[in-house]
Every structure is written in C-alpha cells, then in structure tokens.
C-alpha cells in the first residue's frame, strides 16, 4: 500500500473514532483483537490500519523478537540436457506429489542414439566371440609349431635336416606364439568394447529417463517458467516448486540478543494475515558473522545496524496438517525464548487453528 493510501485509511478510522467517542476509544479498538459490533461495517478498514500501526509492546528481557516474511525451500525443476519441451503438466498454484511428472522433453534423438548404441553393443559381443575363436586357432597353430620344432631338433641331431630347416621351424614357432598373444589382446579389447557399449546404453537410458521431469517433493508450484514447444538449454528451468513442509522465517537480532539464542530454542510466530493464531517454531540457524540487515527489514534505523541472521522453522508435522493453508511471502513477527526455564507471556501462548 502507498503512503498516500495508508494516510487516507488512517484518516478514515480517526473520523470513525471521533464519531464513536474520541481518540481513546480508537486506540482501544486498534489494540483489541475484536471489533465492536457497531464498527463491523468498517472492519476491513480497521484491520488494514492495524497492519500499519506498530503498537508498543513490552516484552520480558528473556524474549527477543524480530520481523520477517514466511519463506519456504524452493526446488528448481530444470532440464539435465538440452531439448524441446513437449509437455508441461502443472500450473502455478497446483499441489504436486513427490514423483509426479511435471514436464516432458522430446526424446526422439535420444531414442535413435539408443538404437545405434544397442547395435554397437551387439557388434561388440560378436567381435569378442570372433576374437576368442581366433585365440583358439592360434593356440592350435602354436601347438603344431612347437611339435614341428621339437621334431626338427631331433632330426638335426641325427643329421637328417639342415640347420636352416631348424631355424625356419623356430621362427614359425615364435610367430605362432606372438600371434596368440596378439589374439588374447584382441579379446581384452573386445571385452572393453562391450563395456563401453553398455555404458553408452546406460547413459542414454538415464538421459531418456531424465527427460521426464518429476517433482522431487510434495509441494506447490510457485512459478511456471516455460511452455511446450520451447527449446531449453541444459539446466533450463521449467518451474519452481515450494516445499511446504520446510517453512521458516529469517529475522535479524542485535549482538546482545543473538548471543543468547541457542539452536533448538523455542520460538513463536504471529503472522500479520492471521494474528489470532500463535504458531510454534524452533531456531535452526544462527549466523556466525554479523551483517547489515537487508532492505526487507521495515525501518531504516534497523537496516543501518549490524545484526545476526536467525532462522526459525515451523514444525513440519504441523505444516503437513494444514498444508493447504500454508502461504509464503506474508509478513509477521517471530519471538524467541532466550531462557528455556521461563514461560511465555499470555499473548504468546499457543493458539492454533482447528
């Protein structure tokens, strides 16, 4: 809301308050959770003013507070490989289940490559069979060459054959031995060819499977970023899904308070849109280094301070129970207990929807 419209709204309520009985009455109306019956026609305006007026609240020194916005973990549904988008099966705002198909990438080219890879695999298997057969052939030739060499050595001793004939048989034996070794190497190479073909088939099947984009978690589609027919590069985003069971608020606390916050400390959240409820939460992270607070913090004075970011998470079981009501981006205030031995104030006692 703009400043001009806010001032106009406040002026309207002031006029109503004067009609109803003065400024003190207006202040009581703004502090109360209930709206008097005679002001019911103006309830929308009064609630709007309440959201823009920060009433002074005295908190015990063992409770720290800070404002922020409800956030949820986001999952980008993106392509693993480049391709043309053929189907997008979810709209913004849809609730999707884990494993549900969200989009499909064209796989015609991959399927053609897979057929080629299968053919190469069959060829590699046959090549190994042929290499094994060649090994058996060279084993026989080596055995024959060895027998011939022994025979000629015996005949040479008796003077029946010349030394030249013996040398020829010895050369034939060595050639047969070398050929057998080469054939064994071919068997190993053919086995490696089979493994390479299997790996290629496995890779292509994985790419084909990855061309069907599925939801990694149960959640809600936040953004739909691409449409059927678009060609996306590797890593191209198709949509963003919110994990509504991982909802948190980040607030910023000064050193004096942040130093007392412990991981797992109890916390309470009050959301501006539903101030009648007090939601339980726990601290899951405290920054190790101070920083200037971001622009999302409401006042300039707070942004100029060095603060510590504290992450407070709502219990996932509670979120699952009310998952259809979970909204992100809405502002609110988080309260953190700095002393577990002390209780909460009446305002911060648990109040949950049915």
From TrEMBL:
Q: Which UniProt keywords apply?
A: Membrane, Transmembrane, Transmembrane helix
Q: Tell me where on the tree of life, at the top rank, the source sits.
A: Bacteria
Q: Which Gene3D superfamilies does the entry link to?
A: 2.40.30.170, 2.40.50.100, Helix hairpin bin
Q: Name one GO cellular component term.
A: plasma membrane
Domain CzcB-like barrel-sandwich hybrid stretches: 76-243
Transmembrane regions? 7-27
User: What is the protein name for this chain?
Assistant: HlyD family secretion protein
Q: Which organism is it from?
A: Cocleimonas flava
